[in-house]
Specification:
mainly alpha; 5 helices; 3% strand; 174 residues
Length: 174
């Protein structure tokens, strides 16, 4: 082997050693995993906030469902009596039903958008609270890294129950 080949081989070996050793040096000493979906689903805050949201939208939802049922009944009535109506009466009633259908579709779309926006606001507030508790507990317990999404996490590093316990404790103190 010549000098250039030996130097290049030594440099490659040094780089390989650094790449293998580097992850070991930056490895966190204490890791934790939290199941964010479970935290959103199981905290008392989440359950109450979502129950309140449902209550706030229940009347509007009920009214919309009644309007839709009324529309369906009117539509069925028109189909049933179509043979008894003149062409002009049938056209007028069909036009009125199409207008009512457009109005109902617009109301349904507005309801869905309002509900989704309100639900997203509630979830954003809850996520902010959950993240604050996770950070606080991680600092208290000297955890170096908390991950929320993982393909696999052992039960030894699952921090979800601890966060859930703290969230529910804080909720009880309110």
């Amino acid at each position: 082997m010549n000098h250039k080949t030996t130097s290049a081989l030594a440099l490659q070996l040094l780089c390989l050693t650094m790449f293998v050793a580097l992850p070991m040096q930056v490895q966190a000493e204490k890791l934790a995993y939290v199941d964010g979906r479970r935290l959103l689903d199981e905290t008392h805050q989440s359950k109450d906030e979502l129950r309140i949201l449902e209550q706030n939208f229940s009347e509007r939802n009920r009214e919309l469902k009644e309007k839709i049922e009324s529309f369906k009944a009117q539509e069925a009535e028109l189909q049933k009596n179509a043979a008894l109506l003149s062409a002009e009466e049938l056209r007028d009633k069909a036009d009125a039903l199409r207008g009512l259908q457009r109005t109902l579709q617009h109301e349904q779309q507005n309801y869905n958008e309002d509900y989704a926006r309100s639900r997203n606001q509630v979830l954003a507030r809850l996520e902010k609270l959950i993240f604050a508790v996770i950070i606080e507990l991680a600092e208290q317990e000297n955890i170096d890294l908390v991950v929320q999404q993982a393909v696999y996490a052992s039960h030894d590093i699952d921090f979800t129950d601890r966060v859930l316990e703290e969230l529910n404790k804080r909720y009880q103190q309110q």
